[in-house]
Specification:
Elements (H helix, E strand, L loop, with lengths): L2 H16 L4 H10 L4 H8 L6 E3 L8 H4 L7 E8 L2 E8 L10 H17 L3 E8 L8 H7 L15 E10 L1 H8 L2 E5 L3 E2 L4 H8 L5 H5 L1 H6 L6 E3 L2 H14 L38 H8 L6 E3 L7 E8 L2 E8 L10 H16 L4 E7 L6 H5 L2 H14 L4 E9 L3 H4 L8 E4 L10 H9 L7 H13 L3 H6 L5 E2 L5 H11 L21
Parallel strand pairs: 3-4, 4-5, 5-6, 5-7, 6-8, 11-12, 12-13, 13-14, 14-15
Antiparallel strand pairs: 1-2, 2-3, 9-10, 10-11
Helix pairs in contact: 13-15, 17-18
């Protein structure tokens, strides 16, 4: 065949691949206001930076070869804000982006390159599950599980998943392994589709109830964020990656400090109520301390009594774990424990210092927590905290009661501990503790009750903790940003160029 004919053949086959599932299916997506797999890539990455891997791949079975351009998964490498990434974008117009022998080879390749060469892996999920008959019967089993480390996470580089439609099979599995999961409202993630599930359980089931955004962000916690559009989801992917390094052997990127970043902290006392029993939203405290407009909250709807927020101080990434009295008075339940633990794993794996903002009345007591293995959740947190090797800075704002004092970075579980003058180091509210310790109620003996409350409070002030050098600092709340900037600089990991030991790298991604 002449060279010109060969070039023409390449052009024809390229056009077939780029046509995806055909004009009719692409038009349907456009009418629905949903981006297709290649449009998602174009929106996400730097213009002209995408290099496709496996453009001419096809389904392995003869009966589907002609209708599987790129075999339903568009894969390759690109840049986001100048940094290299690996990515897979599922093409639902081609056999529902079902998982096959060939397209799973594509995923394996880009995943391995991402881990070996040090770049984030981005997975744009939308898939119908395993392709049949590729995976059916003994022949199917002979091609499954040929990669014994397919579902291993050692966190060499960040993984990000966007759930942008029905997500069953590989899209669900890789989302469950990812460090950040954003989903478009209307998308569904589950082990199997509603049709399959309905047959299995013998009754109809609504897709939203099976794996919609409210369930994933508020009940299971498997998704970090829900948004309204594909474009918003892809923007969230970019924003998340801006806080993280390309791989675990480098520090996170530095960013310019926005003008006016010092102003909000000077008014921080306007956020904190005078009464220790009055609630407030700790996320406003985080925003006041951090660089202006740099706060990015993960799992906002899950375990809400603790806020986990990526932000920047002086242009450098930090992770805030902050008790939020706005929900359950800040008491830590099973979901909050799991959320805090997974956030520590994220930050330690990718060299992001941790800042604990403490206002915690303790752990939420009750039968529900015990049924969910609450003691195990508490100790999982402590185990993870003991393995953290990035800098840990603790600031006690108000209450720091009981065992929760330790979980929230008390004692030797932090590198530097500061108290606000409003800090309270008891084991419960002083008035309640007098009743518990001495059996005295205010209505029975007001004078003695008042005396005992004063006695209990005397040992719970920040001055007592500072006197014993358990708190290294007592600071004016309005100086918190300046103090934190300086202390984070002191505790930078100079000897290892900002890189921690990553002892949590193989911690489960969900449990």
């Amino acid at each position: 065949m002449a060279r010109e004919d060969l070039i023409r053949q390449l052009e024809e086959k390229t056009a077939e691949a780029l046509a995806m599932g055909g004009t009719e299916k692409l038009a349907e997506r456009k009418a629905q206001g949903v981006l297709n797999a290649r449009e998602r890539i174009d929106y996400l990455v730097d213009p002209g930076s995408f290099i496709e891997s496996g453009r001419h791949a096809r389904g392995i079975r003869p009966e589907v070869e002609h209708k599987t351009p790129a075999d339903g998964k568009v894969a390759g490498f690109a840049r986001i804000n100048g940094r290299d990434i690996a990515l897979v974008s599922n093409d639902f117009t081609v056999l529902g982006a079902s998982s096959s022998v060939v397209n799973m080879k594509k995923i394996r390749h880009v995943k391995q390159v991402a881990c070996k060469r040090g770049m984030p892996l981005v997975l744009l999920g939308e898939s119908s599950g395993a392709r049949m008959p590729d995976r059916m019967g003994a022949p199917g089993r002979a091609i499954l599980a040929q990669d014994p480390t397919e579902y291993q996470r050692l966190r060499e580089s960040p993984w990000v998943s966007a759930l942008l439609g029905p997500c069953y099979g590989s899209s669900a599995w890789y989302a469950a392994m990812s460090d950040f999961v954003v989903m478009r409202k209307g998308a569904v993630m589950a082990v199997a589709s509603p049709n399959v599930t309905s047959i299995a359980i013998g009754k109809p089931i609504d897709p939203e109830e099976l794996g919609g955004w409210k369930l994933l962000t508020g009940v299971s916690g498997l998704a970090d964020l829900a948004v309204d559009t594909d474009e918003q989801a892809l923007a969230a992917v970019k924003k998340f990656l801006s806080y993280l390094p390309g791989h675990n052997m480098e520090p996170p990127p530095e960013h310019p400090v926005p003008p006016g970043s010092d102003e909000a902290c000077r008014k921080i006392l306007e956020i904190l109520p005078e009464s220790r029993n009055q609630v407030y939203d700790v996320r406003r405290i985080v925003a006041a301390i951090a660089d202006k407009d740099s706060s990015f909250e993960l799992k906002e709807r899950f375990g809400k009594s603790v806020a986990t927020v990526l932000a920047r101080i002086d242009g450098r990434s930090v992770g805030f774990i902050a008790n939020n009295p706005l929900f359950k008075g800040g008491a830590l339940d099973a979901d909050a424990c799991q959320k805090a633990t997974s956030f520590m794993v994220l930050c330690d794996s990718f060299n992001i210092p941790l800042v604990f903002l403490v206002d915690v009345p303790g752990f939420l007591i009750g039968v529900e927590g015990e049924l969910r293995g609450m003691p195990g959740k508490v100790i999982n947190w402590m185990n993870a905290l003991s393995l953290v090797t990035v800098p840990r800075i603790t600031i006690i704002l108000r209450k720091s009661y009981g065992q929760a004092y330790i979980n929230m970075g008390g004692g030797r579980n932090t590198d530097e501990l500061a108290c606000w003058p409003t800090a309270d180091l008891g084991f419960m509210d002083p008035k309640v503790s007098v009743n518990v310790l001495y059996g005295v109620k205010e209505e029975d003996d007001p004078e003695r009750f008042k005396q005992l409350v004063a006695e209990v409070e005397r040992d719970t002030t920040p001055w007592e903790l500072a006197r014993l050098y358990e708190a290294q600092h007592v600071i004016d709340p309005r100086d918190t940003r300046d103090w934190l900037t300086r202390v984070l600089h002191v505790h930078r990991l100079r000897l290892k160029n900002g890189v921690g030991a990553h002892r949590l790298a193989n911690w489960p991604t969900s449990y």
